[in-house]
Amino acid sequence: MDNSKKVFFPGSFDPFTLGHADLVERGLRLFDNIVVAVGYNEQKSGWIPVEERVRALQEFYAHEPRIEVISYTGLTVDAARRTACSCILRGVRSTKDYEYELDIADINHRLSGLETVVLFADPHLSSLSSSVVRELSHFGRDIREWLPANLNYRIERNK
Ligand code: ADP
C-alpha cells in the first residue's frame, strides 16, 4: 500500500512570492509530495498569463522531484482528487486570511471530505501578498526582492 502523503497547494500565484515559496519549503517537511496548483478562471487572464506562471514554477522546482506544478480550473477539491492528494495546504497571514480560509476549508470538507492543513505565515513575510507585488510593479518599483531569486517570468505582464 502507498502510504505517502501528497498535498495539494492551490493558489493564483500571480505572481508566486517568497511567502508562497516558504509554505512549499515548510510543506515538504510535513508531506512527501506537493502539487503546486495554479488555479485560473477562464474569464480572467490575470496579471501573468497562467501558462507562464506554470512554466516559470516548473523550471524553478525542476530540481525537486517531490514537487509537481500544474494548472487547474474548476473546483479545487476536484483537482485535488484528480491528482490523488489526500489534503489541501493553505497559508494564513492575518485574521482576515483566517476567516476566509476557514470558510473555504469548511466548504471543501463538506464537498469532498478533504482536510485543509493551514500553516501560519513567517512573521517576516506576513505582509507580503501577490496583490502588493502587482501594485509595486504598477508604480515602477523593482519587485525582485519579493520573489524567489531564481524564479524567472519571461512574458510581459498585463497592466
Ligand atoms: P488565492 O488567490 O487562492 O488566495 P494566493 O496565490 O493569493 O491564492 O495564495 C495562495 C495561498 O498562499 C493562500 O492560502 C494564501 O493565504 C497563502 N499566502 C499568500 N501569501 C502568503 C505569505 N506571504 N505567507 C504565507 N502564506 C501566504
Q: What does this molecule look like?
A:
- The protein is of the alpha/beta class.
- It contains five helices and five strands; from the N terminus they run βαβαβαβαβα.
- The chain has helices at residues 18-30, 50-60, 76-82, 95-112, 130-138; strands at residues 6-11, 33-39, 67-72, 87-92, 115-120.
- The chain has a five-stranded parallel β-sheet with strand order 3-2-1-4-5, sandwiched between helices.
- It is globular and about 50 Å long.
- The chain starts with 5 loop residues before the first strand and ends in a 21-residue tail after the last helix.
- The model has no long low-confidence stretch (mean pLDDT 95).
- It binds adenosine-5'-diphosphate.
Per-chain topology:
Layout: E1 6-11, H1 18-30, E2 33-39, H2 50-60, E3 67-72, H3 76-82, E4 87-92, H4 95-112, E5 115-120, H5 130-138
Parallel strand pairs: 1-2, 1-4, 2-3, 4-5
Percent of sequence in beta strands: 15-25%
The description of the largest β-sheet is: 5 strands, parallel
Helix tally equals 5
Radius of gyration: 15 Å
Specify the structural class.
alpha/beta
Question: What compounds sit in this structure?
Answer: adenosine-5'-diphosphate
H/E series, N to C?
A: EHEHEHEHEH
How many β-strand runs? 5
Strand arrangement in the largest pleated sheet: 3-2-1-4-5
Spatial shape: globular
Helix content: 25-40%
Q: In whole angstroms, how far apart are the ends?
A: 49 Å
User: How much is the average pLDDT?
Assistant: 95
Uncertain regions spanning at least 5 consecutive residues = none
